[in-house]
From TrEMBL:
<keyword id="KW-0349">Heme</keyword>
<keyword id="KW-0997">Cell inner membrane</keyword>
<feature type="transmembrane region" description="Helical">
    <location>
        <begin position="58"/>
        <end position="76"/>
    </location>
</feature>
<keyword id="KW-0677">Repeat</keyword>
<keyword id="KW-0408">Iron</keyword>
<comment type="pathway">
    <text>Energy metabolism; oxidative phosphorylation.</text>
</comment>
<keyword id="KW-1003">Cell membrane</keyword>
<comment type="subunit">
    <text>Component of the cbb3-type cytochrome c oxidase.</text>
</comment>
<dbReference type="InterPro" id="IPR038414">
    <property type="entry name" value="CcoP_N_sf"/>
</dbReference>
<keyword id="KW-0812">Transmembrane</keyword>
<keyword id="KW-1133">Transmembrane helix</keyword>
<keyword id="KW-0560">Oxidoreductase</keyword>
<dbReference type="Pfam" id="PF13442">
    <property type="entry name" value="Cytochrome_CBB3"/>
</dbReference>
<feature type="domain" description="Cytochrome c">
    <location>
        <begin position="219"/>
        <end position="300"/>
    </location>
</feature>
<keyword id="KW-0249">Electron transport</keyword>
<dbReference type="InterPro" id="IPR032858">
    <property type="entry name" value="CcoP_N"/>
</dbReference>
<keyword id="KW-0406">Ion transport</keyword>
């Protein structure tokens, strides 16, 4: 707050306080020549008279005490422009104090799960319930309440893991985040075979995931393999199975995070993709990260987790 605005607020507050004091004094005093409280000339039915008696002195004094209290309050707490107040109170400090209290209560709740392996947590109904609650608060915005994802956000309820599906992989994803980058190959492929090179590469990628072996013998798919071998094998491998250490997905399954259409594949190949999973370790802490990771891992490892059913 600038000095000008600060003085404006102080003046406005002082004006209102002084106005209240003047109003009390002006309305409470009696002047020479004022009619008696019983002489209002307001009479009904011959014997019902309206009086104009002043407030009792003790009542008026309570108003003055209220004004004095308000002045003390404004001096103790920051109520006068940029003045910080003699009490040193701030909303940030109040928030931090309350947060530390609530964090301490949460730590007591989560203490029994500290350091436990994910498979063990996944077999504990209480731990899974806590993990589900953490997931709903922090992960469902992107992955959905059922963890089945959306366009651009992976499905966590299946058995496909772009960064590895071992418990330690899932925990690392939650705590440290992931950043998957598919480079834009449009310029390179156009230099190798023109605009059709992008289409033929996309055709080959679709053919790899097709259950019909004949799809790989299609003319465009055959030409596309040449381009695939030239620019894509470094990450996705010669067989298209991907590389979990890079986050490069398996192109031979039938899961397509950005869609299976030719338009989507052309966009991916030409302009690339950049997916970011934020790191939650600092925010959630290790124990809560373990709980939510155990819940996610249990969705696709139902037998190991002992749930006996799927999230779907």
């Amino acid at each position: 707050m600038s000095a000008g605005w600060s003085w404006y607020v102080i003046a406005l507050v002082a004006f209102n306080i002084l106005g209240c004091v003047w109003l009390l004094w002006w309305t409470a005093r009696r002047r020479p020549g004022d009619p008696a409280p019983t002489e209002t000339s307001h009479v009904w039915d011959g014997d019902i008279t309206e009086y104009n008696k002043p407030l009792p002195r003790w009542w008026i004094n309570l108003f003055y005490l209220t004004i004095i209290f308000s002045i003390g309050y404004l001096l103790w707490y920051p109520g006068l422009g940029a003045f910080a107040g003699y009490g040193g109170w701030t909303s940030q400090a109040e928030h931090d104090l309350e947060k530390s209290r609530q964090d301490a209560r949460l730590e007591e709740t989560f203490a029994i799960y500290r350091g436990k392996p994910l498979p063990e947590l996944a077999r504990d109904p209480g731990a899974v319930a806590l993990g589900r609650g953490i997931f709903a608060n922090t992960c469902a915005t992107c992955h959905g309440s059922s963890a089945q994802g959306a366009i651009g956000y992976p499905n966590l309820a299946d058995d496909i893991w772009h960064w590895g599906g071992q418990p330690e992989d899932v925990l690392a994803t939650v705590m440290d985040g992931r950043e998957g980058v598919m480079p834009p190959w449009g310029v390179v492929l156009r230099g190798m075979g023109g605009e059709q090179a992008i289409d033929q590469t996309a055709r080959y990628v679709l053919a790899m995931a097709s259950p019909d072996p004949a799809a790989l013998r299609d003319f465009d798919a055959v030409r596309g393999k040449k381009y695939f071998d030239g620019v894509c094998v470094a990450c996705h491998g010669a067989d298209g199975k991907g590389n979990a250490s890079l986050g490069a997905p398996d192109l031979t399954d039938d899961y397509w995070m950005y869609g299976k259409s030719m338009a989507s594949l052309r966009e991916t190949i030409s302009n690339g993709r950049h997916g970011v999973m934020p790191a939650h370790g600092e925010w959630l802490g290790e124990t809560r990260s373990r709980l939510v990771a155990a819940y996610v891992w249990s969705l696709s490892n139902t037998q190991a987790a002992g749930t006996g059913d799927t999230a779907e």
